[in-house]
């Protein structure tokens, strides 16, 4: 993960952690599809036949949370080369646009009560591009990302990633962490570590690509079977209701 600079270590405000991809923008933007195509092409460029490439892509995503984690661990690829050819080649400017509603939502978070950081499995270059295009980069106080320059980087949902994120931000009390992510596994991992206010962003019914395979969002989640204390929302605007205590009234 990267090292955000200049954060005081005695800041006792709570902290809002925002996932970026498929959370700050809708899965309907098609970025997961474009990314899936590029990752598949990367596997094929390594010499894997189409079918085996698809299987490995999904297997590594399912096992590690990111296909790149499996590629680095088992095939010793250069993660920065992967990032350039996959994330770095995405036509984000064609797929995303400034989001005034998102900007207003983040502006309405009471900064006397909460800091706002991003927590992403992407590399810092991709994270910066997305935040800039959405028009909210100036409202994010810090970004904790997967440091692909380090072959042993961690990522969500690994506990080390969340623990290191808290260290980077100078957070000692996990109960002060507010977190929203489109991955149920990532949210559950944070909740298990004691993060106090966890929200699953779930655009139920939308078709997206996960680990290289098409999937309807929320198809593996059943109503009425959740006792984890995790709230699900389908629109980020619902955070005003779920977390009223951190918004300007």
Number of strands: 8
Secondary-structure class: alpha/beta
Straight-line distance between termini: 35 Å
How much helix is in the residues? 25-40%
* H/E element order: EHHHHHHEHEHEHEEEEH
* Residue windows where pLDDT falls under 50 for at least 5 positions: 1-6
The fraction of residues assigned to DSSP E strands is 5-15%
Biggest sheet strand order reads 3-2-1-4-5-8
Profile the largest sheet.
6 strands, parallel
What is the rounded Rg?
18 Å
Tag the structure with descriptive keywords:
single chain, 249 residues, alpha/beta, two-stranded antiparallel ribbon, 10 helices, disordered N terminus
Question: What does it look like?
Answer:
The structure is a single chain. With 249 residues, the chain is α/β, with parallel strands linked by helices. 37% of the residues lie in helices and 14% in strands. It has ten helices and eight strands. The protein has helices at residues 31-45, 50-64, 67-75, 79-85, 92-95, 100-107, 124-134, 159-169, 184-192, 239-242; strands at 14-18, 114-119, 142-144, 177-181, 197-201, 207-210, 213-216, 231-233. The strands form two sheets. It has a six-stranded parallel sheet with strand order 3-2-1-4-5-8, covered by helices on one side. Strands 6-7 form a two-stranded antiparallel sheet. Strand 4, helix 9 (184-192) and strand 5 form a beta-alpha-beta unit. Helix 2 packs across helix 3. The two termini are 35 Å apart.
